Amino acid sequence: MEKEHLFIVIAATFYGTITVGGQFLANLGLSLYEIAILPISVISIPMSLIVMFKREFLISRGVLRFFIVYGLIGGILHVTQFGGIVLGVPVAVVVLLLYTQPIWTTILGKILLQETITKSKSLAVVLAFIGVFVLLKPWDIESIGNLSGIFSALVAGVFLSLWVIWGRRSGINKQHYVTTTFGFTIFSTMWLWLLLPISSLFVQASWARISLNFSTYQWCYIILFGLLWGTVSHALFYSGMKRVPASTAGIILLLEPVSATVLATIIFRQAVTMNVIVGGVLILISNCVVLLKSRLEKN
Asked: Is pTM, for the whole model, over 0.90?
């Protein structure tokens, strides 16, 4: 396996903390906007310090517009991916809707990046989607929540796809992964604060609440969540995107539901059933199809 693919595999594993961590922070009493803003704000602090001492990682004027758009994508993604959870949609349904993203990534990758939709990618998408469907077993969920929460999670799937594609564009433009991580976190945080007044008009006041008055216990989890999900995962992901196509990365990121399931089993003591095993195997097979095809094409 090439190291760039390995980086994205590891990043996808760490990204499994997103949904589980969001639910955990919600259980601790954090609002939707606190879950969306505070962890990424934590990420921006060490990244800003790195850039302060390493000036070569600063964002150049020529790519400023790129990061402004990327930050907007990130801001909307952060709100919508946690919106379904806060609105009462079960985590399984949120993740399933979020991971419709390989379909959008493959289609949008073709439109925006002129990437070829090969038979292997099509097969991998089908296998991966079936795997996620079996893994989460939505037909066994008694209630899937309100329509607003479902729509929020579905929108998050589309913006997750755009996030993958913009990350690939950064790699194509040979942006250093530190610069990309810094730019994404700073501008996503900026957009989240700018969108706060607008969001307050459409959601309950309790969902848009922002407070820094948390216990040491709560702050430890907020910081840990931000470091695992953001600093480590983003750095590995953007480093790998220098050579991995967006549609391929989108499929590899389907490892996230597997790691999320394992974390949910450990943290929330959820049973590992046969559908989890079968779904996880299908997702891993889909990743193997992509990785082996990539290796054959390079050789």
From this structure: no
The boundaries of the domain holding residue 116 are 3-298
Contact 48, 229 (CB under 8 A): no
Q: How many CB atoms lie within 10 A of CB 230?
A: 26
The residue type of 231 is T
Is the alpha carbon torsion for 269, 275, 276, 277 positive or negative?
positive
* Cα–Cα–Cα angle for 155, 157, 163, rounded to 5 degrees: 105
Structure tokens at 224: 């840990």
Measured CA to CA, the distance from residue 174 to residue 222 in angstroms comes to: 32
How many distinct structural domains can be found in the chain? 1
pLDDT in tens, the chain (299 residues): 578 888 888 888 888 888 888 888 988 889 888 998 888 888 788 778 888 888 777 888 778 888 899 999 999 998 888 888 888 777 777 777 777 776 777 777 777 767 777 787 788 778 878 877 887 677 665 545 667 777 888 889 889 888 877 877 766 567 777 788 888 888 999 999 888 877 766 666 667 788 888 899 899 889 888 877 777 787 788 788 777 877 677 778 778 877 877 887 788 776 667 877 787 788 778 777 766 666 666 55
